[in-house]
Write a structure and sequence with these properties.
Structural class: alpha/beta
Protein name: Bifunctional NAD(P)H-hydrate repair enzyme
CATH topology of the largest domain: UDP-N-acetylmuramoyl-L-alanine:D-glutamate ligase
CATH superfamily of the largest domain: Ribokinase
CATH architecture of the largest domain: 3-Layer(aba) Sandwich
CATH class of the largest domain: Alpha Beta
GO biological process, one term: nicotinamide nucleotide metabolic process
Cofactor: K(+); Mg(2+)
Bound molecules: ligand LP7C6HRI, potassium ion
Shape: elongated
Number of strands: 17
Keywords: ATP-binding, Isomerase, Lyase, Metal-binding, Multifunctional enzyme, NAD, NADP, Nucleotide-binding, Potassium
Strand order of the largest sheet: 8-17-16-15-14-13-12-9-10-11
EC number: 4.2.1.136, 5.1.99.6
Largest sheet: 10 strands, mixed
Length: 513
């Protein structure tokens, strides 16, 4: 990491940089990329590919992955009525050519196949049977080429039957493009979906591959190149990425010898009166991740509790109405955190209003969100400066009742960010960070043991600590979520929230090297 300008006032906040290797494509964007690759097909540029060459590359890519990962054995290739099925016929041909005993089942009539899938079926010289449980006799390896990006409705009938049989018998299954039934853009399961040992997708992963359902169903995820040029990404202009360091590592601040604590930023956390631990965790996390100073603005009844705690925190009593605004008047307190342990009360709503009125970067978490359930407009109306909201599913549903779960997590987070005019970090094992301009990242490194009380308080402090050092709230939120997962992964099972800040120095060092 090279040296960077100090976050002196006026220096533009350092933002996330797109990375084509981490981009995720929705089904529509993948189809657009496919069309781009085919744009010259039939007399066009030398780079252009036909649908059949793409399908041939896709099928060959899956077959090679199977041959690489599994010992030669009987295989049942289940083909659907579309191009996912077409891939299946190509895979069958390649595995048979490699000497594997292959049976092919087709959902629907061969005569109804069209376009590239029809050609792929013609090139398969072996028998084609109807898709049925009989195909799974003898515990073959299963290739699931029933449905991919074209899944339109819940799976039923024969397809549902064989999928349930794959799951109940624990057959090894390979998902072509995705486990059939997993909806590519949302990660929802439409009816049924097989648990796969491996899933092979093409060109770039889809959002569903990183969703909780995707990570539970896909097994090992492989991405194969099928000849779509990288230039297609420029045309598609996808705005969602897998959350990994290359997106925001350059925006992290490197401590410099010229530093004094104020250039590293000053976070102020509004402390709760009774649940004092939450603000203390946030404060500790903000300091561990590099903020120069942290102040806990403490209700007078709890001042002594905070003063008796971590010596490195500054404790400022909150005496009377407007006290928070007065403390926040100091421009060096450049990031404000409200919510952890605050209580979902009118007093907390006032604190939020005071914080937002400063126009300074604000992290609103937990009770600062719940305090506005039933009246989210009152919150959104006050948002002027940079703000990040960090709801878990329950808080999200209270703040954005109109954004139904069947929309899919990515779309819900995006629409919420646009609605609120703020960065929205929707927590979970597949946390999504969405910006009001439509950019979004999906995080996939969080281990299950991160689901422990106080972990969210730590996260809000980490976001504030990174923003205090000069990152945009979008970049800070993305970086903090990844480091949060990395810290938990380092510690392992048995993790409690207090362990997270202790892991941060090693995570930072791993990013510096
Ligand atoms: N995009 C690319 O670059 C490439 C994609 N390939 C493969 O093609 C599929 C997408 O193919 P498509 O024909 O669009 O859709 P599907 O094969 O997934 O299925 C559509 C087919 O199925 C019917 N259908 C949808 N849902 C159901 C349901 N629940 N029950 C019954 N039938 C259903 C629908 O009516 C259509 O007939 C992609 O995933 C890749 O595998 C290329 O091979 C390579 C290039
Ligand atoms: K599939």
């Amino acid at each position: 990491m090279t040296d960077r300008p100090d976050p002196s006032p006026g220096a533009p906040a350092r933002d996330l940089v797109p990375d084509d290797d981490l981009v995720l494509l929705t089904c529509a964007e993948m189809q657009a990329a496919e069309r781009y690759a085919m744009r010259g097909a039939g007399g066009g540029g030398d780079e252009s590919a036909s649908g059949s060459t793409l399908m041939e590359a896709a099928g060959a890519g899956v077959a090679n992955a199977v041959i690489e990962r599994f010992l030669p054995q009987p295989v049942a290739v289940l083909c659907g009525p579309g191009n996912n099925g077409g891939d299946g016929f190509v895979i069958a041909r390649h595995l048979a050519a490699a000497g594997w005993p292959v049976r092919v089942g087709l959902l629907g009539e061969r005569a109804k196949l069209t376009g590239d899938a029809m050609w792929a079926a013609i090139l398969w010289e072996g028998a084609v049977e109807p898709v049925s449980a009989g195909l799974l006799a003898g515990r073959p390896l299963v290739v699931d080429a029933l449905f991919g990006a074209g899944l339109k409705r819940p799976i039923e009938g024969k397809a549902a039957e064989v999928i349930e049989m794959i799951n109940s018998r624990g057959l090894a299954c390979i998902g072509v493009d995705m486990p059939s039934g997993l909806e590519g853009d949302t990660g929802r399961i439409l009816g049924h979906a097989p648990r796969c040992a491996m899933t092979v997708t093409f060109f770039r992963p889809k959002p569903a591959h990183l969703s909780v359902n995707g990570r539970l169903l896909c097994g090992e995820l492989r991405v194969v190149d099928i000849g779509i040029p990288r230039a297609a990404l420029k045309m598609v202009d996808a705005r969602q990425w897998r959350n990994e360091p290359p997106l925001w590592q350059a925006a992290l601040r490197t401590p410099s010898l010229a530093d004094h604590k104020y250039v590293r930023g000053h976070v102020m956390v509004a402390g709760g009166e009774t649940m004092t631990g939450a603000a203390r965790l946030a404060a500790l996390a903000a300091r561990r991740i590099g903020a120069g100073l942290v102040t806990i603005a403490a209700p007078s009844a709890a001042v002594s509790v905070y003063q008796a705690a971590e010596p490195g925190n500054i404790v400022a009593p909150l005496d009377g109405a407007g006290a928070f605004r007065q403390l926040a008047a100091d421009p060096r307190r450049n990031v404000l955190v409200v919510g952890p342990g605050a209580g979902a009360t009118p007093a907390t709503r006032r604190l939020v209003a005071e914080a937002l009125a400063t126009g300074r970067a604000c992290v609103l978490d937990a009770d600062a969100l719940t305090a506005f359930s039933g009246d989210p407009a009152a919150l959104f109306g006050d948002i002027k400066g940079p703000v990040v909201l960090t709801p878990h599913d329950g808080e999200f549903a209270r703040l954005f009742p109109g954004l139904r779960p069947d929309l899919g997590k990515l779309d819900r987070a995006r629409q919420a960010a646009r609605l609120a005019g703020a960065v929205v970090l929707l927590k979970g094992a597949d946390t999504i960070v969405a910006a009001p301009d439509g950019r979004a990242v999906i995080n996939a490194n969080a281990p299950p043991w991160l689901a422990t009380a106080g972990a969210g308080d730590v996260l809000s402090g980490m976001i504030a600590g990174l923003a205090a050092q000069g990152m945009t709230l979008f970049a800070a939120a993305a970086a903090a979520v990844w480091m949060h997962g990395a810290a938990a992964a380092r510690f392992g099972p048995g993790l409690i929230a207090e362990d997270l800040p202790v892991q941060l120095p090693q995570v930072l060092q791993s990013l510096a090297s």
